[in-house]
Amino acid sequence: MACNGSACQSGCYKNGDELAAPEEGGAAAASNSNSNSSSNGSGNNLCVKCKVKEPFTVAGGGGGEDGRFCAECFRSNLFGKFRHAVTSNAMIGPTDNVLVAFSGGPASRVALQFVHELQYKAQKNFDASRDRSLPVFGVGVAFVDESAAHLPSSDKAMDQAIEDVKSLVLELSPPAKELHHFPIESICSGDSSDQREKLKEVLNAVTDATGKEDFLVHLRMLALQKIASENGYTRVVLGSCTSRIACHVISATVKGRGYSLPADIQYVDARWEAPVVLPLHDCLAQELNMLCHLDGLKTIELPYEPQSTINSLISSFVALLQEENPSRESTIVRTAGKLTPFAFNRIPEINDTNVPLATRRRQKRSSLKLNGSISSESFCPMCYSPLIQSKVQALDTPEASKTNSYIFGSSCCSSCRFQILPQDPLCMEHFYSHLPPPLVARASSGNAHDIRSLREHIQDYLLLDSDNEQ
Amino acid sequence: MEETAAKPRRSGGGGRQCCICHERRPALKRPKTLEQIATFLLRLHEKSCCINRSTEMLALKICRECFYAVFEEEIHQVIVENQLFKPGERIGIGASGGKDSTVLAYVLSELNKRHNYGLDLFLLSVDEGITGYRDDSLETVKRNEVQYGLPLKIVSYKDLYGWTMDEIVKMIGLKNNCTFCGVFRRQALDRGAALLKVDKLATGHNADDIAETVLLNILRGDIASLNHVFTYAYFKKLDYFSTECIYSPNAYRGFAREFIKDLERIRPRAILDIIKSGEDFRIATSTKMPEQGTCERCGYISSQKWCKACVLLEGLNRGMPKLGIGRSRGLNSNQMKTDKPTSRTKSIESKQCGSLDF
């Protein structure tokens, strides 16, 4: 049973319909009979893995993980998941230059830590080897500074946070890593005050709170890609964990983005020039939090106000479900994992003979898994999600008045059109003119759909005539 | 809504009249509902055209007569466009006595006459044997039979299985009772439909129900059902009518329902967006779909040796209330371990129509 039977009060469908298999990492299995403190037989408590040491417990109850593993085994289990994700998806090769996106939070802190450990081991092997055939991959850290979007002016707490990030990265050597502190407004054109202005304009134009939050996420990815391309990084590592992915599954569903959902939740996303990889894909937020706690990994909290959006509603919802059933997040991700991924959800094959054969072979193997994946030719310029090809855009304005902003808008997915793009044409013009150049460039790179005229018989179905004020 | 003296022939947009007829005063007080309807209508046609969706369009003001006309017309369009019925078919209307199914019965019978669908309509009701809940709503259905002139068939759990829900709850308590009821109801509807010799079953599931089911299937890992969620009865709800089954307070579905309510408050169109997402999901063909066989005990369609209802019944009759609840237990335990989809999925698949498990 996936559910913690005795404690769960809800009369849920706890029958054969519950298709989740209890995960090692997450489930508070019914086998947890020897759990938490004051029960019978103190001597019975042993780590389920090594059966030697005593499991650690977190004061107040750590939920699913509590009382199962000793600290060592817990850590190695978590690192094992990370390493398995990296090797079986050929995420990081010896010739790669990896950019780790660091937000300050526990998940990206663990991602950074684990990547560092991987690199450190590789470096030691390199130093010890005689022929030095296998180079060590490079690691850099990106900190996208979104304070211009959240805070009115320069903020002491923010300055301190940035200093903390700097010293944190300094400590993660050898091997030394470069930190790229990137203010998000830098993706806009112009000098720094222009950029701040443009960012504010463009964010204010988005009236929907959830749309604004999502828009910022799209800008963040643009920023990461910009850092990667300007500094020669070949991979971007995100700390997205199972819990975060589960929330994304629900939020994409709720925003009508069911078609493109699989693109975002795989281990690899190669839509971008520097493919984005998710090595913590199989780790729960709770586990990552616990590891930071256990190992004293420093996290940095940013002084942003939480917004009330659909995304935050979903986070609370998923957290609630996870409390009720500790395998819920895994189940959600597993279910969504059955959706067909896209052709770009794997590392593209390397034909470069300079890359070691073993690496190339590994990539070939991982790419075989994605048989039957979907090829998509066009993407929404705003969120870069793949678009369903059959959708025909027919618009009711004459060819002559089709401005660039209009064309941009019409080539966006319906979700972005609803929650991000301004409805009023004038606002849209203004918005479009302030967009960062990389976003604008996407739309004109052959994405624009053919404009067809509105078919006559559809008119009958409309309640109102197209507004005549145009 | 403000009331003004009717001014004839004022153009739409900022007018204070019904936006459709421009004559009568707006009568409907629930803009949220209308926004949903408008959004739904717009979405229905989104596939064939891109409509400039200014927010003014959504602040519709509509009089009662036009509302009826719009609503009925919308349902007619759904029926026609999706070719839901053929002339001469016998259609069973799943009738609970609630607003949704009453509306469904009324509208279908109206449209059948108005547009000459040539259908034979029947009311089909399930009596689970829940005192103080079902007996009240069954009275409504009996009135519908008289009001709309549609023959009624009631199938009861007592007749089919020998147990009422009241008796089941007395035996197993309030934790897994919904499981029993759901499994039994599905079979009951099916058996009732077979008794009536109907070709199709129409249900009054509304967008909220469908959205809720899409979500629940994601949460539970039931990918096979996602394929089958889309009932052809795409009826938009009018009001949120929630007479909860008296046994339901602890139902897991409550989590999802609460979430959907909150979601709808923030963004009304999210319900339809959930449905859209569900439609757009591409499920890998390698996902195992259940194989169709028959139950050894009752002959009903089953993917296991015994159908789910028989397994549960066996448990009840033997005083083993947990039989069939949870995984890898009971008669089908070997099969349950390897075949991921359950009998729940199989009976959805096996139906020729969309009698869905909600």
Describe, in short, the structure shown.
Chain A is 42% helix and 6% strand. Chain A is mainly alpha-helical. In chain A, helix 2 (106-128) crosses helix 9.
Question: What labels would you give this structure?
Answer:
heterodimer; A: 470 residues; mainly alpha; six-stranded mixed beta sheet; disordered C terminus; B: 358 residues; alpha/beta; Rossmann fold; 14 helices; 6 strands; disordered N terminus; tRNA processing (chain A); nucleotidyltransferase activity (chain A); tRNA binding (chain A); cytoplasm (chain A); Rossmann-like_a/b/a_fold (chain A)
Folded structure, characterized:
The complex is a heterodimer of chains A (470) and B (358). By secondary structure, chain A is mainly alpha-helical. Chain A folds into two domains: 25-366, Rossmann fold (3-Layer(aba) Sandwich); 378-458, no CATH class. Helices cover 42% and strands 6% of the residues of chain A. Chain A contains 17 helices and six strands. Chain A has helices at residues 71-88, 106-128, 147-150, 156-171, 192-204, 209-231, 242-254, 261-264, 285-295, 310-324, 328-336, 357-368, 404-410, 414-419, 425-434, 437-444, 456-459, and strands at residues 97-101, 138-145, 178-183, 235-237, 268-269, 276-277. Chain A has a six-stranded mixed sheet, sandwiched between helices. In chain A, helix 2 crosses helix 9 (285-295), helix 7 crosses helix 11 and helix 13 (404-410) crosses helix 15. The longest helix of chain A is centred in the N-terminal third of the chain and has 23 residues, at 106-128. The radius of gyration of chain A is 24 Å and the shape is globular. Residues 1-42, 446-462 and 464-470 of chain A have low confidence and may be disordered. Chain B is built from 14 helices and six strands. Chain B has helices at residues 31-44, 64-81, 99-114, 134-148, 157-161, 165-172, 177-196, 207-220, 223-226, 253-266, 270-280, 308-318, 333-338, 343-350, and strands at residues 90-94, 120-127, 152-156, 200-202, 293-294, 301-302. Chain B folds into four domains: 15-41 and 55-82, no CATH class; 85-204, Rossmann fold (3-Layer(aba) Sandwich), CATH 3.40.50; 206-283, no CATH class; 290-324, no CATH class. In chain B, 46% of the residues lie in helices and 7% in strands. In chain B, strands 3-2-1-4 form a four-stranded parallel sheet. Chain B has a two-stranded antiparallel sheet with strand order 5-6. Mean pLDDT of chain B is 70; it is low at 1-14, 28-35, 42-60, 227-243 and 333-358. In chain B, helix 3 runs parallel beside helix 4 (134-148), helix 8 crosses helix 10 and helix 8 crosses helix 11. Chain B has 358 residues and is of the alpha/beta class.
